[in-house]
């Protein structure tokens, strides 16, 4: 059924302890992820990204070689 309410936003999670600094998340979703300039590990720029970023965030989660990212 159609609703005029916006869909519930997803939330990004990143486990820096699992991150290996491959940067695949940044390549897939640069508006949502970055890398720390000191250690190269993931930095989440938008914990609740815009709905238009949803596909890119899902791509980033799938591309992460260490499984450090979640999107729920």
TrEMBL record:
Protein name stated in the entry: Ferredoxin
A Pfam family it matches: Fer4_13
Statement: the UniProt record of this protein carries the keyword Methyltransferase: no
Domain of life: Bacteria
Entry function: Ferredoxins are iron-sulfur proteins that transfer electrons in a wide variety of metabolic reactions.
Cofactor(s) listed: [3Fe-4S] cluster
Signal peptide: none
Coiled coil: none
Keyword Transport belongs to the record: yes
Keyword annotations from UniProtKB, A to Z: 3Fe-4S, Electron transport, Iron, Iron-sulfur, Metal-binding, Transport
């Amino acid at each position: 059924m159609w609703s005029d309410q916006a869909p519930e936003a997803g939330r990004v999670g990143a486990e820096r302890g699992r991150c290996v600094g491959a940067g695949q998340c940044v390549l897939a979703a640069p508006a949502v992820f970055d890398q720390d300039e000191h250690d190269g590990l993931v930095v989440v720029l938008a914990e609740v990204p815009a709905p238009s970023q949803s596909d890119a965030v899902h791509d980033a989660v799938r591309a992460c070689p260490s499984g450090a990212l979640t999107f729920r």
